[in-house]
Amino acid sequence: MKNVRALALSFTMAVALPLTTLAKDVVWTGCDVLQQGFMEVVAKAYEAKTGVHVVVSGGGATKGIRAVSAGNAEMGGTCRHVLKDGAGVINGEEKDVDLVPVAWDPLAIIVHKDNPVSNITTENLKKVYDGQITNWKDLGGSDTPVALVTREGKTSGVGFMLRGLLFNDVNYEFKARSIKEKDTTPLEKRIEKTHNAIGASGLSSAQKKDLKMLAIDGVAPNKENILAGKYPLVRPLYLTIVKNPSPEAKGLLDFTLSPEGQAIIAKEGGFNLTEGVAIGPIWEGKKKNLN
Description:
Layout: H1 2-14, E1 26-30, H2 32-50, E2 54-57, H3 61-69, E3 75-78, E4 97-112, E5 119-120, H4 122-129, E6 147-151, H5 157-167, E7 179-181, H6 184-193, E8 197-202, H7 203-206, E9 211-213, E10 215-216, H8 223-227, E11 234-242, H9 247-257, H10 259-267, E12 271-272, H11 279-286
Parallel strand pairs: 1-2, 1-3, 5-10, 6-7, 6-8
Antiparallel strand pairs: 3-11, 4-8, 4-9, 4-11, 4-12
Helix pairs in contact: 1-9, 9-10
């Protein structure tokens, strides 16, 4: 946690600016988990404080990095870090972007609200994604097929982090047949409407839908377990920003990291940096599998 917190604080202290002097609009885009979890509320609070209008749109973690890198947005959000090749060289579409951690977010295993199953073991979860378990009766549910819903490709924030945290390999190929969705929002909505569906999403956004979250190995994804570091699937959430941001964009970053911004994250059901102090050391041990 010390490293994560130090990075965030060093960045926000680098160019401290008075919020009351700002005027230009800021374009923010990217990860649906951040957008729906808390960023829309943070942006409104920042606008009320400064008069700076923030245009917020989703589209995924990859967009949250690459739109900023390409100059199509000054700020964004992502729930994964930049892609690197085997030699550690950053993907050309993701360079020249700073990723600043602002919160923690569990990966929730989500099912329809009426699904009778409440817990899944880590091993059985792997078997679902590998196609070795295809019927809910093998998970303690009814005799009905498992409808796995996943994100397209391997670079989505949820897909990337799930592969790394569950299989210790961000390039792992899920072997199960699945229904593929382009973004987090349609994935959550499909599972919300499909009785036999299962998938993964960020808790920050999923908890705002009419969904059920499964415990993993008996550990429920509640605030107590998450902040104590007991829940196994947790990752940081980042704001992405250009290397030389405008005062308005830098002000939004500063505001998100301020006590007021961090309090909004907690109020919206997220897990801010101060709350998640116990997660830091655990993350340090896991993140080596995510590069």
